[in-house]
Write a structure and sequence with these properties.
By secondary structure, the protein is mostly helical. The chain is 64% helix and 0% strand.
């Protein structure tokens, strides 16, 4: 399984490379690479966000929402 954060990073790097490319061929190549990463991101299974039999998740982003609410007061 691919690391999700690496996929996100690589997609952004390719988009930046496309933006900075000196010629259209390089720009197209980097855009295509970014699209390839985007497809892999979309297909990623996110197993660490899927609840197990007990309902526990290895990673629950919403748990941090409570911390933000507590510090806002």
């Amino acid at each position: 399984m691919e690391d999700f954060n690496s996929l996100l990073l690589n997609e952004q790097v390719e988009l930046l490379r496309a933006q900075c490319a000196q010629d259209m061929a390089a720009r197209r190549m980097h855009r295509q690479e970014a699209r390839n990463y985007a497809k892999r991101i979309e297909a990623h299974a996110f197993p660490y966000r899927t609840p197990d039999e007990s309902g526990h998740r290895l990673f629950d982003a919403h748990a941090y929402d409570l911390l933000a609410d507590e510090t806002a007061h």
